[in-house]
Amino acid sequence: MTGVVNGARVAGDDVAGAKAVAAVPLVVQHVAKSYEVDGRVVPVIGDLSLTLDHSQIVSIVGPSGCGKTTLLNTLCGLLTPDRGRISWYGREIAGQPQNVGYMLQKDLLLPWRTALGNVMLGLEIRGVAASEARDRGHAMLDQLGLHGFAAHYPSTLSGGMRQRVALARTLVNEPAVLLLDEPFAALDFQNKLLIESDTAKLVREGGRSLLLITHDIEEAVSLADRVIVLSKRPTQVKAVYNIALGIERTDMMAARDSRDFSKYVRQIWADLDVVLQ
């Protein structure tokens, strides 16, 4: 079934869900954001509404330059919206929300710290006892396939391993919600699939919620329960897809092999309306 909510085409039972405003992790209502450039106002986000439910993975895709990173920075309190409401667990919050992890495309590991030292950084800042921070850091590195690499420095690790350390650094703080801004974009296909699978497993088994920004439509479909397609600037929600692949959702190859995978990819590609130059 397809309907229209806030001017956007919505696929599946999202028609009813988009109208519900429960105390879910994240509710965004009619948010707008612009920048001033050389004395003129440049609108980036036009009028955007979305929700992120409990234990749900949502992917956001859109044309290059449509404001996806600006949106994420606004949601996590690094930027202030011009208008609209952003509610975390039913409350509007000024500044950065609590219990939310934000991971960027660059790993931003501190070169003078070991893998374990980088993972422990947030715990140290929060005042967690050193022994507990070490134990939690080791456990998270082990979960992400980095057993035996705790004492290695970033310069000795591959790109995929560095990104796993960055993911471990985010997850070790046990955030209820993860905001990821193209964290796997620079990885080769093999490493991308492995880390996508690890991320999906840790998020789903931990009952967390995940909002993922990506340019990769296949990544969006294979990972997410719901894919939100953004328009060109000034950005609005153009379409929403509930992804039903009929398989176990932590296996990225199985997702890509599923019957309806290509259908979703083609539909979203058509929605993006990309013109080859």
Notable characteristics:
single chain, 2 domains, 12-stranded mixed beta sheet, disordered N terminus, transport, nucleotide-binding
Low-pLDDT runs of 5+ residues are 1-10, 15-22
Overall average pLDDT: 89
CATH class of the largest domain: Alpha Beta
Name the structural class: alpha/beta
Number of helices: 9
Count of individual domains: 2
The main β sheet shows up as:
12 strands, mixed
Morphology: globular
Distance linking N and C termini: 34 Å
Output the radius of gyration.
19 Å
What is the strand tally? Answer: 12
Strand content: 25-35%
- The CATH topology assignment of the largest domain is Rossmann fold
Helical residue percent band = 25-40%
CATH superfamily of the largest domain: P-loop containing nucleotide triphosphate hydrolases
CATH architecture type of the largest domain: 3-Layer(aba) Sandwich
The secondary-structure element order is: EEHEEEHEEEHHHEHEHEEHH
Protein described:
- The protein has 277 residues and is α/β, with parallel strands linked by helices.
- It folds into two domains: 2-99 and 176-272, Rossmann fold; 102-174, no CATH class.
- Helices cover 33% and strands 26% of the residues.
- The protein contains nine helices and twelve strands.
- Strands 1, 2, 3, 4, 5, 6, 7, 8, 9, 10, 11 and 12 form a twelve-stranded mixed beta sheet that branches.
- Strand 3 and strand 4 form a beta hairpin.
- It is globular and about 50 Å long.
Summarize the structure.
The protein has helices at residues 14-17, 68-75, 115-125, 130-143, 159-171, 189-205, 217-223, 252-257, 261-272; strands at 2-5, 8-11, 26-37, 40-52, 57-61, 83-88, 91-92, 100-103, 177-181, 209-213, 226-230, 235-242. It has 277 residues and is an alpha/beta fold.
